[in-house]
Amino acid sequence: MQPATKYKRVLLKLSGEALMGEQGYGIDAEVLNYLAGELAQVHDLGTEIAVVVGGGNILRGKTAAAEGMDRAQSDYMGMLATVINALALQDALEHAGLSTRVQTGIEMPSVAEPFIRRRGIRHMEKGRIVILAAGTGNPYFTTDTAAALRAIELNCEVLLKATKVDGVYNADPMRVPTARRFREVSYMHAITMSLGVMDATALSLCGENHLPIVVFDMHARGKMCGIVRGEPGGTLVHDMSAGQDFVWDTSN
Question: What kind and span of H or E run contains 14?
Answer without folding.
Answer: strand 9-14
